[in-house]
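#help-structures
NK: newbie question, is this the right format to request a structure? protein is Circadian clock protein KaiB
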Amino acid sequence: MATPLAPTYPPMDEEIWELRLYVAGQTVKSVTALTNLKRYCEEHLKGRYVIEVVDLLENPQLAEGDQILAIPTLVRKVPSPIRKIIGDLSNQERVLVGLDIRPAHK
């Protein structure tokens, strides 16, 4: 039996980024979008993000709340304002600019 990993919490002065990725099943674009998103988050928001994946094949009614018209769509819920990016998230520069993520300092 697998034991869930304990969540890691950021320092008190850092905000948790809440990201929601809308997909439709396990299509190539959906899987690519999630893979790319996880990579960008680990590179630039390590320990400061939460990703929620919403499969619209299972829960189509959830598309209305964030006004989802195309998939995959990434929605940045927090920090505000809400931002959206449509596509497989393969263009890192476009994703970072679209989400207003400052590159991590090395």
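mod (FA): yep, format's fine, and the tokens are attached above. The helical segments are 28-44, 92-99.
NK: thank you!
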